[in-house]
Structure formats: C-alpha cells, structure tokens
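Appendix B, Record 12. Input sequence as logged:
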Amino acid sequence: MSATIASSATQFPPIDVARPDLFAEDRWQEPFRQLRQHAPIQFVPDSKFGPYWSVSTYKPIVHVEALPKLFSSSYALGGITLGIEADRARPGERRLPQFIAMDPPQHTGQRRTVAPAFGPAEVAAMKAEVQARTAALLDSLPIGQPFDWVQAVSIELTTGMLARLFGFPWDERHKLTAWSDAGGNIDAIVAPGGWDWFNGEMEAMGAAFAELWQQRAANPGKDLISVMLQSDAMRDMDPVEFIGNLILLIVGGNDTTRNSMSACAWGLAQFPDERAKLENDPSLIANAVQEIIRWQTPLSYMRRTVTEDTELFGCQLKKHDMLALWYISANRDESVFEDADRIIVDRPNARRHLSFGYGIHRCVGARVAELQLVTLLEEMAKRRLRANPIGEPERVPASFVHGYRHMMVELSRY
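Logged structural output:
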C-alpha cells in the first residue's frame, strides 16, 4: 500500500484543495474524490498558505493522529491551521498558545483541567436548560414565513450555550459569535493586513475576558473561567495563553455546533427520503446527528507539522513540512462509508466520522455539541416541524471552517 500511495502521489498533478472558492461554491467534493482515488497523500508545492501535504483518506489520517510526537500540533511550529510556517514568522503574526495546539505533556495538563466540565454528568445536567432554551426558540419562530436559519437558530442556540459555559454577560453574548468568526477565519488572517485585524479582535476579546477573570478570582463559580482559575495547570497562564485557550473553546464550541445545526436544515432537505425516515422514527435522532456531523464536517481539516524527516505510506516528508489532515475528505472515504455523499440517518457506522478529530486531540466538547444537536431535532420532532430551505445558502468562503453564513428557510408541519 505504501508504494502505491507514493507512486500515485508523484504521478498525479497537484490539487490545491485549500482554496476558499471550492468551499464558498460547494465544489470541493470532486477534487477530494480525485485525490482519494489517485493521490491520497499529495505534496502541494504552491498555495496561499505555502507548500503543504494533503492527506485525504481515512487510514493515513488516523495513523498521523496516533503519532503526536512525530506529527506535532504545537503553536510554536505553526499550530493547527495552514498558513503559519514552522521556522519563521510573518510580520504582525501572533501565535496563540492553546491546548489543542500543544503537545504532551503541556497539552495533557491543560486538557485534563477543562475536560471534566464536558463530562457525562456535567452534560446530563445541561439537558433541561438546553431543552428549555431550544423549545422557547422554536416556539418563537414563524410558520410559513421566510427567515434566516443560521442567524435565528444556529447562532442563537450555540451562542447561548457559550455564554452559559463561560458565565458571559447574556446581553453581550453575540460578541462571542464575532470573536469566533475572527478566530476561525484563517483566510482573512493570512491576507494583507489580516494579522492587524485579528490582533485587534483578540485584544478586544482579551479585555472583556480579563474583566471576567478578575471577577471570578474574587467570586468563583462553576463556569469554565472559574475552573481554569482553580487549576494548577492553567491558573498561572500569561494573558496570551489565556486568549489562545479562549479562542479554542469559543471556536470549538461555536463554529462546529453552529454549522452542524445549519446542516440539520440544509442536509436533510437534500435527502427527503431520509428526512421522512427520521420524522417517522425519532429513535433514529441520535444516530442521525452523528451522520449529519459526518456529512457536514464543520472543520474541514487540522494541520500537523513534521518534527523530523520521516516516511508516511511511502511518501518522504521533511522536518517542518505542513500536513493538512482533510477530515472533510476522510468522512467521504468510500472505503469506510458506503455511498458517502449521502446522508443516511440509520447508517450503521456513522460514529466512525472524524469530525471531532482522533486521538489525544479529539474534541473535548463533543458531548455538548451532540447534546445541542440531538435536542434541536428532538424538539422539532415534538412539534412536527420541518425546515424547508429556500434557494442555496450562502457559505463561508474558507477552507478551515466549513459552514454557512445565511440560509433562508420556511417552517412547515408534517
């Protein structure tokens, strides 16, 4: 297998699948299908992010994720997104420490601090509040009148959850959405003037959370900031590291859930037979959520940096090479997911998706995301509500966050 991958990779012309237009225009499927077939590990010598390796099939991605010492996530080497070089910085560049962009042992201690806030008991305790907020929102929506699902449902529900987790002022919660959009917009950050814009957004966020940090230091609660303050691993973080971890938790808690919620409306409408199957059997909701997360893949990739010259399935990698692990392609890998371009609500292996990552960096908040998505579909089922998209959605023009800016829908009863 190694020789086959290496041979095909050198013979097939490079495809830069990190181009934002592929995602803005929803044209990414065929390029990735070509890569999976002809060059599952391919070197791309030229892109707006610099040279990088594309890894587009399931097995090599899992292999890389299982070797964090050889394939680093460290912010010092560029972190988890393309565009930041391992061995030199661009003017104005700001590398933010965050535990998803750390290697053990530092990663281990910080993740261990935050993880209990997303444990089974803690998530179960959130259920009633999530149900109440979701029910109230759905009951406020018009039937038979167009509205923007992304703004009215996806953003409102996920931002509310973030505000609850951080104990953030409720009336200012939409600032969290703006900061999340900034933190995940890698294409804008690496554009001319992008670092100045990004640094300004982070300074505003840092000032707001510094005030909360001081409040929680004097009067701790059960929110995530209080948890971080009371931890040996995180209480002495410098301000830059604090901002980095906040961006991680905000982007992770917002973009992924928000865009999967939008996919609940858009994706199910693309497969009406599967939507009808789900509507007729609500016991399929939990599995359908996993399938929608697989089909959408709200973060298209994670980047890793090679720490020493090595071989990957016959391909020769050099120290400091960037790898893009294309989860969005692995989740359509036909050798793992039959008829992978379709949403199949009772797909037996839907949980094998890589949307939450794999290995030590698997998403710490996966259970909270699943809770919100399951609750949304459950509450819609109780009301026999169906979201009917009107026309094409406006998609995020980016290769990292795979999502929707706007999507007009009408609600109907079934």
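The radius of gyration is 21 Å.
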